[in-house]
Every structure is written in structure tokens, then in C-alpha cells.
Fold this protein.
Amino acid sequence: MSTTPAYEGRVLRSTGSWYEVQVADAPAEVPAVVPSRIRGKFRLEDSDVTNPVAVGDRVTIRYNPDEETGMIVDIHERRNRLSRRAAGRRVEQEHVMVANIDRAWAVQAVQQPPLNPAFVDRLLVMAEMHNIPAGLVINKIDLADTEQRQQAKEVAARYQAIDYPVYCTSAIEGTGVAAWNAALRNQVNVVTGPSGAGKSSLINAIAPELEIETKSISEQTQKGRHTTTFAALHPLPEGGHIVDTPGVREFGILDLHPADLCHFFVEFVPYIDACKFDDCTHDHEPGCAIKEAVDEGAIHAARYESYLSILYSLQDGMEGVGR
Ligand code: GDP
Ligand code: ZN
């Protein structure tokens, strides 16, 4: 066995005990996607995780040319991951849905449904918590009247000012789609946002051959939240991947202590240590450097309002209930 060649790859999906591993720079005799199994020992090592190998994992496989299958012999360290809780036998376990995400995109429509920056702010907090770079897509700009166009511009500027990439698109007319597509290239992308914002339409605009799969997966979602849904990495035509996982599309901010929230509003961070009180919640306290920054216009008032809204829901223990 030790003489079989080793390749590095990425897990695209898992079905039971098999993992589809996309091999980077596979030689001609190796298929681009190798059905692979894992060594038994990985199962035993990590008992607080239900799946030792997750979609998105970078792995080393040993390729068996006779069977045209692989054996996963090494799992590379994860840069980040999105998980959900799983009921374990003894302790609560973690189920890793996707690992090694390069960007999580919050998709919003200018209307139908209306643009909702508070929703974006929640997604950004989640992304920062998990160490996942995020971005924003404002879709359906073809539907925008003058006022909505102005609002979209203002919202775009708000997030660009704090270093999140923003794309304004129309999946129907094609505006901005090529620019967004270029940002997806060679990246592992997660697409999130409210139902109807145009996520499927955008994905179909850049990767029409995925159409059937995106449809079938959204149909799957409608069947009910309680059925297990698996993430999959779909290769994009120009390189890179898009993750379709219904579970990632709607999430709460779980397990976050209210005192930690401010660290996930990236533009708040430089001010935190300047507050008068060490345990400042940046709500009502005097001498709050964050509130001063809001008053001076250095922090956008709407972002601060989102902060307060999430803070109160965390203080009330309301997060994770679903929206
Ligand atoms: P999803 O739920 O986020 O996947 O949204 P869909 O992609 O299913 O789109 C919801 C509806 O909005 C569909 O009727 C689409 O045709 C429509 N739609 C999506 N993108 C656009 C767009 O850019 N402009 C317009 N006018 N309609 C769009
Ligand atoms: Zn403060």
C-alpha cells in the first residue's frame, strides 16, 4: 500500500462512508474526482466531532489504481469551518458542514424582499466569529427606482468603507454578474441570504450547468428542516467552488457572549480599549469610545443600531431561536 501514489485534494461531498475528493493537478491516469474512504483511526481520534472529514477539507489521499479509489491518509489543518450541533451519545457533538471557506456572500435584493442591512450585519457577525471573510451582493438592481438605487449605493459604500467587497448585480439582466464571478474564481464561496433574494438565479447565471442541482437542493429544503441536509462543493466553470448548503443559509448567532459581540463589528475594534469602563457594553455607559465614534461619524449609525439590536437579543437569550 505504501507504494501507491499520494495526491492532495479537496473533499467535494460525502455520501455515507465515501468522500468525493477532487484532486488538484491530477495526472491523466487519475480521475479528477476520486471516490475515497477514510482510515478507521480518524473516526476514533476526534470524538467530539461527528464527521472527522468534512466537505471542504483539504486532504492527502493514496490512490489505488486497481480499484480507482482513494484512501484519505491525512487531513490538513482547517482554516475555518461552519458547524452545527449534533446530538451525540454522551456529549453534544459538532457536525462540520463546510471547512476552509474563502468567502461567505450575503445576498440581498434592492426589493422583493426589501434590502435589509440588519440581516447583513448578522451575517457579518457570524462570518467574523468563524473567521470567514465575507462580502455583499446587492441583487435585482434592475428593479430599483431612483430612491432604491441611491439606497443601494449608500449601503454599498457603507460596507466597502469597512473593507467588505460589494457587488451590485442583476441576475436577470446580467449587470455586474461578470464582476462578481471574477471575485468567486479560485475561491470556496458560500452564498447566503433571505429566500427570494436571487441566490439560485445568480448561481445559475455563472454556472448554468449546476441548475438541476441547485433546484433539487432548494426543493429538499422545503421538505423540512428536520431531515439531514448535506453540504456539497460545486466546482465553478472558471475554477473555485460554490457551496450549496441549506443549513448555511439561515443561522443564528449561537453561543456568543454579549461581551464578545463588539469584537465582530470590525470597525469597532480600534475603539474598544478606549472606553472608560473595562466592561463597557457600548450601550448606556458614559465615556464610551464607540458611541463617540458613532457621534463623530467614524462608525455608521446603522451599524451601531445593528450592534445594539443583536446585543439585546443576546442579553435576552433570544439568539438561535430562528428568525
Ligand atoms: P433565492 O430564493 O434567493 O434562490 O432566489 P431565486 O433565485 O429563486 O429568485 C427569486 C425570484 O427573483 C425569481 O422569480 C427570480 O426570477 C427573481 N430574480 C432573481 N434575481 C433577479 C434579478 O436580478 N432581477 C429581477 N428582476 N428578478 C430576479
Ligand atoms: Zn464602550
Q: What stands out?
A: The chain has three domains: 6-75, 98-244, 258-316. The radius of gyration is 22 Å.
